[in-house]
Amino acid sequence: MGATTARATPLDTSTADVVIRPRAALVRSTALSIGFSAVPIAVAVVWVAVPNGPWLVVSAVVALFTVGVLAVFLRLRSSFVAVDPGRVAIRGVLSARRSFSRTQVHELVLAITHGPTVDRTSRELVAFDAAGDTLFRMRGEVWGDDGIDRLVDALDVRTIRLARPMSTREFTRRWPGIRAWYEQPRAYVLVGGVTALAVGGLLVAEAVGLARR
After folding, report:
1. Across the chain, what does the average pLDDT equal?
2. Rounded CA gap, 166 and 118, in Å?
3. Relative orientation angle of helices 24-33 and 55-78, to the nearest 10 degrees
4. Averaging pLDDT over each range in 27-41, 47-61, 62-76, 126-140, which range is the top one?
5. Which of 23, 77, 99, 176 could form an S-S bond across to 144 if both were Cys, CB 3.0 to 4.6 Å?
6. What is the pLDDT of residues 158-193, one digit of tens each?
């Protein structure tokens, strides 16, 4: 994300001209996935681990994973983009809350992106300041196409609409500054390392438990 200047007084979303929140369907499906998939799997993993010995270790890992999932869900529910006559305030799902002057928004780029295949596309909106630095990026799959259109209308600045769909990789290669922290290579390395350590710890605990039987 580009560098922005935070304001000490947060923007009041109750009086903002425009407030955009994540799609209700996304919040609802996330809640259902947690309730009917993640929770039963976590309970089953701990239940299976109890007779084998290392259930405390397994429970600790499951508890940490559960806390992380719930934190992301609560963050999703409380995320917003708000615009008033003087400022823009953003509370992202996986990014810190920030606020900047509305006059800093110099240009918008509206694109249609897709993953490895072109079957599933998503609209993306990126805002830049006068120096070309990224102010924020919004994905239609999170905020909804209607939310993106409302924000474009509210900001009312020059908007470049890319007619040709492009892959997400091509999009981020064209504007490298739009990558979020979790899209950086070091973030993948960190997540992979933590996952490897967690799996390795569970395997060691399982081996120790079997050896004591």
Report:
1. 82
2. 9
3. 170
4. 126-140
5. 23
6. 999 998 999 988 998 888 888 876 666 675 677 677
